[in-house]
Amino acid sequence: MKKIAIIIGATGATGKIILKKLLKDKRYKKIKLFSRSSCGIQHVKIEEYLIDLLELEQHSKNFIANEVYCCIGTTKKLTPEPVIYKKIDFGIPLTAAELAKKNGIPTFLVVSSLGANANSSTFYTKTKGEMENAINQLKIQKTFIFRPSLLLRATKESRIFETIAGKVMIITSFLFVGSLKKYRAIKTENLAKVMILLANSKEKSKILESDKIQFISDHCEI
What we know:
It is globular and about 45 Å long. It is an alpha/beta fold. It has a seven-stranded parallel sheet with strand order 3-2-1-4-5-6-9, with helices on both faces. It has a two-stranded parallel ribbon with strand order 7-8. The chain contains six helices and nine strands, in the order E-H-E-E-E-H-E-H-E-E-H-E-H-E-H.
């Protein structure tokens, strides 16, 4: 039986790739997109809901699927106000997970960040850690949390800092060995691939950092 997937953040770097892959994937009959702006793609599989994601809970009746890919996130530069930042990076993923739990969606996948820790003294990593903890407490049947290091984008809108930092990390990647492997930069393409692989696997809940994501990407095919 063909599946329905929900993507939160389909206009972002990782969400865009997941969307393109799922549109080509014969296992899926419908892709529901919940976002503020249109993905700009016309396709028979796409069902688009243009909403205020801070009011996602109001769209519970349409939040029906087999799996949820949550790729939402912001940056300190784009959202300098801590209260608004937390509403986005903590509030939206948690609300999506709560709707998944409420509506019986068995698989929830969310992009977090390397270093996520609810006890961190850094606001960014603390917020990500709190988000992870809150989602895990819901005990959705299959919960996959991804903690990538720097994400290397293949898009024209790649930020200058990320582009420079990515090139530096590629050149110096040989230095990141052993326990430091998780700090290696990873391509958004590989992250998206592994998210789809795990959604369609028999694996149960996991937290995966960059090195594990890269390993699965290198050794498995969709």
